[in-house]
Each structure stands twice: as C-alpha cells, then as structure tokens.
Amino acid sequence: MAEPSKTEQRKAEHVNIILQENVSAEYNYWNDVRLVHTALPEIDLDDIDVSVKFFGKRLGAPLIISSMTGGFGMGKEINANLAKGAAEVGVAMGVGSQRAALEKPDLAPTYAVVKDYDVPLVFANLGAPQLVPQAGKRAYGVADAKKAVDMIDADALIIHLNFLQEVVQPEGDRRAKGCLAAIKALASRFPVMAKETGAGISRDVAQKLKAAGAKAIDVGGLGGTSFSAVEHYRARKEAATLKERLGATFWNWGSRRPPRFCWPMSDCHSSPRAAYGAASMSPEESPSAQRWRAWRSRCSKPRRSPRTRWRWNSAPSSRNSRPPCS
C-alpha cells in the first residue's frame, strides 16, 4: 500500500483531533438568538412548506451539510453516512476539500461515494489558497475544478476561504494575493459558493465575492469548531511552538455567526447566503421561506428601543459589538 500523502495524513489528523479534543470556540453565539413564539399562527400545520430552490435544485428544507471531510480512509464512511442522511431528508451536501484526491487520485472514492445516494444538490470543494501558486506548488485552475466537479457529479463548486487556518497550520500556505481574480475566473465557468471555515465573512468581502460572480456565500462565522484550535493541537504534536501559540491566540478569532448572517440582506440581497447549514435561498421560495426572509430583513438593522435591553449571556467577546438579532 502506498504511503499516505501529507494532505491525506493531515485530513486524518483533523478528524482524530476533533474526536479526541475540545476544539470548539468558547461561546456559541447562536445561543443569543431567540425566536418569537406566535400564539396565533393563522396557518394550518399541514400547509407549512419549508422546501426551497437553491442553485436550481429543490431542497426539502433550507439546510446544507457543509463540507466535512474526505481524502483519507475513514472519510469514505463519513461521507457515505452524510450523503445517506442528506438524501433521506432532501437537503444539500458539500464534500470536504478535494485537494487530497487531486494530488492522489486513489483517494477519489472517499469523495465519489456521494454519487451512490440521491442527494438533491451536491457541492464540490477547493480551497482559495490553492488557486494561487504556493511555495513549490502550482495553482489550481479551471481544469482542476472540472476534475473536482466531475469526481462527484457536483452541481456547483464551493471555494473555501481558510486563510486563518493556513497561517496557524505548521505546513500551511502563506500566499493570498490573486485569489479574488482566480475565484472570478472559476465563477465564470462554474456556479460558485464562497465559504468561510469559522472566522466569518465581512460586508466588504461579501461585496467583492458577489462582484466576482459568486452565486452564494456561506458566511461560516465564529462558533462551533475552531480550526485554529485544531491546528493548535497539530502544532503541539509536531513541537511547532510558534504555531501552537498562534492556534491558542486565534482560537476564538472571527466574526460572530448570527450577525454575519443578518447583514448581507441589505447589501448582497440578490446573493443567497448560508450559515453552516442555515441557508438563505433564491427568490424561488416557498411562502414559509419568504416569511422567514422577511423576518431576517427586519433583523438586518437591529435597533434598541427605550423599553428593550439586549440580553447577553456570558460571552467572552466585547459587549460594544453590534447586538444579535433575536
């Protein structure tokens, strides 16, 4: 059996660390969101329809299983289980970065297993840092993106923005200049969704991605798994002291997820958004989803009233930040 590649080994280490260590951000900001109970709904339960159209595909609910893994032995089993679940309930699914299979084609089955299930919307996945030349590595282009898409019969392509993770990663890529132009080139050939991996996407970056042709944005803000934390543990294992300290420093770095999900309504309203599975879809929505969109629109500019006080749980971040929608 061939020796595992560095990328393959790293994929396995990521999953093992997540299973064995606490790599969550200190605070889950979704806990600050409270939905208002409607005592008089004026709609029959059987008439509620949460199905939506996203990237031209009908989903049973506005949910995406977003880009977990692949590229090592156990990745095939994980992706098979995720694809089976996505097919059963009719939601979208993205595979993890396909860099490992592009480097080592023998790993393609760990991603291609999703083709065995009737997932209504499938996303291929490449990293933005790999779209520009890195030290000793060529840039991925249209041909590589097509291989990734064809590998899993994908309907669209995710470009993940994981520059913070790369900086902390002991062997991480360091170059970022030219990525936006590369994303624009791919967006002219494939339906593209840009995705952060845990540090959030700001308003100005979302506008740039929209102008580059991204059809949707996964804001992927702070909360849940911190890949700085994951790389902190990898660096500790490799005795990379500086990287270990960087991982600890940036463990809780990023824009909080719920506010980042609300603001694009005013500035990028024509670009569908997702927030690690909670998706804002295209105009082809069900009435229920349209009411949900209207609610979020009201949340895009939270206002304080004299009789309303934002209730914060014990979050570690500054309280001078913009309050969450609730």
- Widest sheet: strand ordering: 3-4-5-6-7-8-9-10
Round the Cα radius of gyration to an integer and report it. 20 Å
Through-space gap between termini: 54 Å
Mean pLDDT: 86
CATH superfamily heading: Aldolase class I
Q: Please state the overall shape, judged from the principal axes of the Cα atoms.
A: globular
Number of strands: 10
Structural class: alpha/beta
CATH class term: Alpha Beta
Question: Could you give the topology of this structure?
Answer:
Layout: H1 6-20, E1 52-54, E2 57-59, E3 64-66, H2 73-89, E4 92-94, H3 99-103, H4 109-112, E5 122-127, H5 142-152, E6 156-161, H6 163-168, H7 179-187, E7 192-196, H8 203-211, E8 216-218, H9 227-237, H10 241-249, H11 257-262, H12 264-267, E9 273-275, E10 278-280, H13 287-299
Parallel strand pairs: 3-4, 4-5, 5-6, 6-7, 7-8, 8-9
Antiparallel strand pairs: 1-2, 9-10
Helix pairs in contact: 1-9, 9-10
Structure description:
With 326 residues, this protein is α/β, with parallel strands linked by helices. It has one domain (6-34, 46-299): TIM Barrel, CATH 3.20.20. Helices cover 37% and strands 12% of the residues. The protein contains 13 helices and ten strands. Helix 1 (6-20) packs across helix 9 (227-237) and helix 9 runs antiparallel to helix 10 (241-249). The longest helix is centred in the first third of the chain and has 17 residues, at 73-89. Mean pLDDT is 86; it is low at 277-285 and 303-326.
